[in-house]
Prior knowledge:
501 residues; alpha/beta; 6-stranded parallel β-sheet; 15 helices; 20 strands
Amino acid sequence: MTPAARLAESHLEDHTLAWLRDLGYTTIFGPDIEPGEPGAEREKWHEVILKKRLAAAIARINPAVPKEAQETALRKILHPDLPSLVGNNHAFHRMLAEGIEVEYRRPDGTIRGDLVKIIDFSDPEKNDWLAINQFTVIENRNNRRPDILLFVNGIPLVILELKNPADEKATVETAFRQIQTYKQQIPSIFTYNEMVVISDGIDARIGTFTSIRERFMPWRTIEGEKLAPDTMLRPEVLAKGVFEKRRFLDLIRNYIVFEIDEDGSMAKKMPGYHQYHAVKNALVSTIRASRPDGDRRGGVVWHTQGSGKSLTMVFFTGEIVREPAMENPTVVVITDRNDLDDQLFGTFSRCHEIFRQRPVQAADREDLKNLLAVGSGGIVFTTIQKFFPEKKGKKYPALSDRKNIIVITDEAHRSQYDFIDGFARHIRDALPGATFIGFTGTPIELTDKNTRHVLATISASTISGELSRIRPRSRSITKTGSQRSISTRRSARRSTPGSRK
């Protein structure tokens, strides 16, 4: 019997709640805590935050912050003040990831600033984890009941819309359309939303509340070491692969970006499973290569066309600049054409918040030298031609001998890596202590000696659909972006009077 057939004999919602319980979530039936019930956790139907749980979490996580400052932080969460839904979601995400700035008066009369944290990212078990099904929200006379909401410290961070496996007309398409209805009719639930899951019992996909349908992607692995077997239910793979507590907190803190255009419009984006695990592998490899006994070759990350290479580079850069072991590194991003430099720089600039700094673009050789003559920090974009000495045959002058410089090369497989008189030699002359890592959308042949010499020995190719892997000895990182569809659905359940899907 196939997994889908087994699922059709029970309720997807019940299965999903059971998987979440396995991960350590407490499950609650929404009607048991709705307004007017003995166990009510909300006073009014339009409220989407469980205030007592949030207040208790803030006090628990921030014991040194005075109560009045804790209450100020709570008010900032409960009362978003921007005119757009995406603007309020963006503001909340920054509070979630970075903390909330507050001020309070000390006993001596001086004013002190502090940072109130909403979530304890270092110890997941210090947070309050809930999965609530059939949570009714009434807003502007619209009465809606999402299937499952995941709450962390009383805040609804994830919405799961599950369609009935027994209904042939219920698909991920109808689940997606249902999410769009919720956005129109009960928008408050999305003020705090980090992820959206849609499922129809055969297919299960994840995205953000701004994602178009095509950007909802499957999640095909749990731990990242290998793809889940076909005998495993796809919604179970997604639930256990994304919502394991520590991984989920890592995703929302370090892998959610808002691409902000010049006109102020924003798109919220999250990684696919292949991007997330590739970055994790690349991070380990790069840290190892940059150690005093390392060989300065971080490896190569290979993508199939259209699988999000630029965004993977963004996530990797965000991780490496925040990594304590790198001691505030300088990142140099190199392309071999001006148009590619502008394009990639634009992507990084629109996602600059994840770096806690803005990238800069070298205008010419002299500007590049000035940008790299720093003691630490910085994300510098340049074309590889700027590393060519002014006179052919001359050695490029050393710009820095620091060990915490990371050189990221885009399309890291071309002729510029000739070590006899090529650009790679000049970069090494300029930055002798730098560690190299490459990203490419073009398959690399095992006979490509230049790329192997500069970045890492490529000893493993990938089969279509396989995950990125790190080979400790060769320090190669390989992966594909191809993904097979995976899926799920929803079951019938007890209704709250007057509520609708």
